Amino acid sequence: MGKNKNKKFKSGCNLLYFAPLLSIDYDKLDANPFDETAFTYGDWFRARGAEKIDLKSQFASQKHAADDNESYIVQKKNNGYNGTVQVTCLPPEFFEKICLMENFIETDETVPLAFATGWEYKEQGVKCRRILWNCDLTQLPSITHTTESGDLAIDSDSININASGLEGMRSITAVCTEGEDAYTNFFTSVLMPSDFGMSNIMISGPSEVTVDGDTITLTAATLPAGAAVTWTSLDTDNATVTSGGVVTAVAAGTATIKCALTSDPTVFATKTITVNAATVGG
User: Closest Cα to residue 199, out of 230, 232, 166, 221?
Assistant: First the structure.
């Protein structure tokens, strides 16, 4: 099959669930961007008669297969997704718990909650379950008409969604396959990145240092929390870095500082540091 130039994720799904995002504790996120306890989700509820998921990933770089079609999913980069989810009929819970409509009536105060979407599909014959966190409605649900074989016109509910990582929360999607613990427990509660064994890293700290004996200290937040990291300067002529993230200026210019998980160097983050010349007379 030819390459999907539109870079879309398309899936016929057997199971489709939604769960509202009830609250976010930003104080916890400020302390640790990967603190999963900062997110409180409601219970999953099922949408019957799931028909199609058609999500376009933004600037995606990794490819996965779904229903034997090429699709593009980004795991380690927060690029986001947008597109449509189509079902035969949205359950009442969607309007009540996510759209926050009373008696299915929209009011001026109606501000839909963010939500998680989880679904099951087959990837080259293997059952998979995927979760997409932090979804938002780009508009309230609409009714459309489609035509199937036999020219039978049916009503279906189509929702337009957008998903992007919260600041610091770069994990927006994960997948598991039949036989894994996460697969078995998938719809019992909203699973978080750690349930999938996902890893991530984020660097914080100053972005400038001066060549006059000045130093700055960088810190790394990791998923899993507290994981060992390895610091490296990719431009030692301009700055060096210790095993504790202390950066020392060497010569004016820029230096890229890299921080990688010691257990898996393929998981890393970088930060560009501006090295300023020493102050005249300093």
Answer: 221
Buried b (16+ CB within 10 A) or exposed e, 233-248: bebeebbbbeeebebb
Rounded to a whole number of angstroms, the CA Rg of the chain reads 23
Interacting residues of 203 by C-beta distance below 8 A, sequence separation 6+ = 218, 219, 220, 257, 259, 269, 270, 271
CA pair distance 117, 19, nearest whole angstrom: 7
What is this structure's pTM? Answer: 0.73
Start-to-end Cα distance in the chain: 65
Q: Check: CB of residue 263 under 8 Å from CB of residue 250.
A: no
Q: 103 — phi, psi (to 5°)?
A: 55, 30
Residue type, 111: V
Helix (H) or strand (E) holding 113, with range, is none
- Cα-Cα-Cα-Cα torsion 40, 43, 49, 52, nearest 10 degrees, comes to 10
34 exposure class (CB count in 10 Å sphere: 0-12, 13-18, 19+): buried
DSSP helix/strand/coil, 77: coil
Contact residues for 224 (Cβ-Cβ < 8 A; gap 6+): 194, 199
User: Is residue 114 classed as helix, strand or coil in its secondary structure?
Assistant: coil
Strand partners for 223 = 200
Domain ranges of the chain: 8-198, 201-276
- What does the pLDDT look like over 162-176, one tens digit per residue? 887 654 445 678 889
Tell me if the domain spanning 201-276 has CATH number 3.30.559.10: no
pLDDT, tens digit (0-9, with 9 covering 90-100), for 115-153: 999 998 887 788 889 888 888 888 777 544 444 555 544
